[in-house]
Write a structure and sequence with these properties.
2 domains, 32% strand, 5-stranded mixed beta sheet, alpha/beta, Rossmann fold, 10 helices
């Protein structure tokens, strides 16, 4: 699996690989980049008064890791055949988590353009679905694993209190384009950036919508610098991911001077070079909101 990770997103190809897994009869997916390994279940030590979605902890190669029952987190019945169950060991947001699923199927290579954003008819701020993939007459749902973890441990998410420690600064006239597909994280970003003094934040759910907005300003004959001073983007998003958006901005004659900061759970030492290759000015791992604001200040103030 590690060999495959080197192929993806090297030049902002807008592609990804997902590990397909099952909960009951439903098909779900997780980005390969998040997956460290897949193992058979091992004995779990129950932790008293743990969150209802946490089965307990396991020791894996000297590390103590929490085990999250994905079926419980989604409100699904338990496994009917525990012999098929698998543990997906994942790493993102600078932490490792084990996700207990009912089965693992195969790896699919797809374009972010094949992933539809969930409809508002069934997607709200409490939903754990960030994308829908129609593949071989099946529907695979991409889960918001960051949200699942933040619900268990709110301190692992973006924290407004951290921003208050920075103190007030004059930022009100600066205009930010923020690109984030998760409704929960969009709200948290709005709250934290507003607390930091930024009043003009234009939010988009994916890279394609953000690029359409930026190119639309140019087509209208407007000076980009008057309407947008910086772009902050996630990586994992339906339609167009953050790496491809960054590449499109940095190779565009009239957009290339826009600073782009990638703010993602996928920023690790192993993957940082991918953002550098597409021209990102800076990269920050979620949930380091104070570092993000400091970098925004660096490029704007």
């Amino acid at each position: 699996m590690d060999n495959k990770k080197g192929i993806l997103l090297e030049s902002g190809t807008n592609e990804l690989e997902i590990v397909g897994f099952g909960i009951g009869n439903n098909k779900f997916g997780i980005n390969v980049i998040k997956v460290k390994e897949i193992i058979n279940p091992v004995p779990v030590t129950i932790v008293p008064q743990a969150h209802k979605n946490v089965e307990g902890i396991i020791e894996l190669r000297g590390e103590v890791l929490p085990v999250v029952n994905v079926a419980t987190a989604l409100g699904f019945p338990p496994s009917e055949n525990e012999k098929q169950d698998k543990f997906i060991v994942a790493e993102f947001n600078q932490q490792k988590v084990v996700f207990h699923v009912h089965s693992v199927t195969q790896i699919h290579r797809i374009s972010w353009g094949q992933i539809e954003k969930p409809s508002e008819m069934y997607q709200g701020i409490e939903s754990q679905i960030i994308g829908v993939i129609k593949l071989n007459s099946e529907m695979i749902l991409l889960l918001d694993f960051e949200k699942i973890v933040v619900e268990i441990n709110p301190d692992s998410g973006i924290n407004v209190q951290q921003v208050k420690k920075l103190g007030k600064r004059e930022r009100s006239d600066k205009r930010i384009v923020a690109v984030e597909d998760s409704p929960l994280l969009r709200k948290l970003l709005h709250d934290t950036l507003s607390e930091a003094g930024f009043q003009y934040i234009e939010f988009f759910e994916n890279g394609q919508d953000a690029l359409n907005y930026l190119e639309g300003l140019i087509k209208e004959g407007k000076n980009i610098a008057d309407h947008v001073q910086i772009v902050v983007t996630d990586i994992e998003m339906p339609q167009m991911d953050g790496h491809h958006l960054t590449k499109r901005i940095k190779t565009h004659k009239e957009l290339s001077k826009l600073p782009v900061i990638i703010f993602s759970s996928l920023i690790t030492n192993d993957l940082r070079h991918k953002g550098q290759m597409v021209g990102a000015d800076a990269q920050v791992s979620k949930p380091e909101i104070t570092e993000l604001i400091s970098l925004i200040d660096k490029y704007l103030l």
